[in-house]
Design a protein that fits this description.
The complex is a heterodimer of chains A (about 290) and B (about 200). Chain A has 13 helices and no strands. By secondary structure, chain A is mainly α. Among the domains of chain A are: about 5-50, no CATH class; about 140-270. By secondary structure, chain B is mostly helical. Chain B has two domains: about 1-95, Rna Polymerase Sigma Factor, Chain: A, CATH 1.10.1740; about 115-195, Arc Repressor Mutant, subunit A. Chain B has eight helices and no strands. The chains are: A mainly alpha (about 290), B mainly alpha (about 200). The interface between A and B is large, with 69 and 70 residues.
Chain lengths: ~290, ~200
């Protein structure tokens, strides 16, 4: 079997977070060298994340409220002695709904790829302010002056990049590890504190620029970062797992990646001259 | 529910602790119903199967191996019940999926990346969800079952192999093929809307 063939055998294990670190590192090295495999891996990761948007089938609250009574009636009809069943005193669910294990693997995979490929493209080939203005013009009238929009774009991009590094460290931290020192918590806390301090001003600027979704993303990130910043030095693994689940339940990494991809896509798209004859494209983000 | 909570709940069920069964049903009813629905595409069948699964569990809790995952055991019973049900049914019309907001992994929470005051975004998200459902309907039953169990129900490849009586290699092969087919089916679907646009 060719090297690419052997590598492809590892895709599923990697995407679902079931690959051991040594082979994961080997796979990543191969993906760095082989654009074909990298493209295939990236496409599979994106498909998995898209499939994660599937809606739950839910007949509605009224149905669920009566579910147990119906079950008890059926048990009685079937001659099964119905259990004595006081309603639970406390909610069973954890503060954050637990996501499947794959969510961490796939999000991590896409995040790593995006970090290595898309972000790299963004930062290495950053569009100069003039071009940025044209891109903004494709989406219609911008309410943000070009220079400040560019500045806000850079600040937002840097903020998301730094937040992602923190989140990736957390996501990739082995929950089965016995030693939390591997997480380098003091450093994570320090950076998180700095990011929390920046969040307020950034949210205000994004609000002024009417970038409501980015504003919401920064607000979601802020909540997670506050939790990290407030972790005690002797934090136990369950605290870390709760934060991980919180980040996953909000699809934070996925949203950051989408934001980056969208901006990369906007900047890589051939720029049509704005004017009456210009084709109407999907409105681009102002920043 | 994490592994520790699952083990505790299983132990309480085995001990016949009052209230444990109700807690157990409340914790798993949506996922069991959801899996049964995905396999049968019929509300009445999904309800019937999910109830029969809980009754089987209630009757057979003593046979549960405590070193196994409770959820895996439960999904295995559900898949077998659904497959039995489908085998017995000579003809079954396709039922349109119920239109529901929310995400699969977090069943009761509306998506917060789709602003409710943004009809365009809501329509886009609804379209994507429909495409996903349609894509799943276009792959084979075996591929779909493997994909559902791995992707939405968090069973490991080994657990899926045990549940479906397949080799690990076959499970991997089905899963790989299902993803490739889904990728093709979703090829023209725009990426889900995210921030920044």
């Amino acid at each position: 079997m060719s090297r690419c063939g052997k590598t492809k055998d590892l895709f599923l294990d990697s995407l679902y977070g079931e690959l051991d670190p040594v082979r994961e590192a080997g796979l990543m090295r191969h993906l760095d060298e082989c654009p074909s495999c990298r493209g295939e891996y990236e496409a599979m990761a994106r498909t998995l994340l898209t499939m994660g948007r599937k809606a739950a089938v839910d007949p509605g609250r009224e149905y669920w409220d009566g579910y147990f009574d119906k079950l008890e009636r059926r048990m009685a009809a079937d001659g099964v002695s119905a259990p004595s069943s006081p309603a639970p005193q406390a909610p069973v669910r954890a503060p954050f709904a637990r996501l499947p294990r794959w969510a961490f693997g796939a999000a991590g995979a896409v995040a790593l790829l995006a970090a290595g490929i898309l972000i790299g493209r963004l930062t290495l080939h950053r569009v100069p302010p003039a071009e940025n203005t044209l891109a903004a013009g494709r989406g219609g009238a911008s309410v943000v002056p070009a220079a400040s929009a560019s500045d806000l774009s850079l600040r937002t991009s840097r903020y998301l990049d730094r937040s992602k590094v923190i989140l990736l460290a957390l996501v990739n931290f082995d929950g089965g590890a016995k030693d939390i020192a591997g997480l380098n918590l003091p450093r994570q806390k320090e950076v998180s504190q700095a990011l929390v301090k920046e969040a307020s001003a950034l949210k205000g600027d994004l609000k002024a620029a009417k970038e409501r979704q980015l504003e919401r993303l920064v607000a979601d990130l802020e909540l997670i970062l506050v939790q990290i910043a407030n972790l005690k030095a002797e934090a136990d693994l369950s605290s870390v797992e709760i934060i991980k689940a919180g980040a996953a339940s909000k699809d934070i990494l996925f949203q950051i990646n989408l934001s980056e991809m969208r901006r990369a896509d906007d900047k890589n798209r051939p720029v049509a001259k704005a004017g009456p004859g210009a084709p109407a494209g999907k409105p681009a983000s102002k920043i | 529910m994490d592994g520790l909570d699952e083990s505790r709940l299983a132990a309480r069920l085995i001990d016949g602790e009052p209230g444990a069964f109700r807690e157990f049903v409340d914790a798993y009813k949506k996922r069991i119903y959801g899996l049964a629905y995905e396999l049968t595409r019929n509300h009445a069948d999904a309800e019937d199967i999910s109830q029969s699964v809980f009754i089987k569990v209630y009757r057979g809790m003593g046979t549960f191996q405590q070193d196994a995952r409770l959820s895996s055991w439960l999904y295995r019973i559900t898949v077998n019940a659904a497959l039995d049900h489908l085998r017995k049914r000579p003809f079954f019309p396709q039922e349109k999926p119920l239109s529901v907001p929310g995400r699969f992994a977090d069943d009761s929470v509306p998506r917060d990346d789709v602003p409710r005051d943004d009809p365009g975004r809501e329509a886009e998200a609804a379209l994507l969800r429909r495409k996903i459902d349609e894509a799943l309907e276009r792959i084979s039953d075996r591929e779909k079952t493997v994909f559902l169990l791995r992707h939405y129900y968090d069973l490991s490849l080994k657990e899926i192999a045990e549940t479906l009586g397949l080799t690990l290699g076959s499970v991997k092969s089905y899963l790989f093929r299902s993803i490739k087919k889904l990728q093709k089916e979703l090829g023209e679907v725009p990426a889900p809307s995210g921030p920044g646009g």
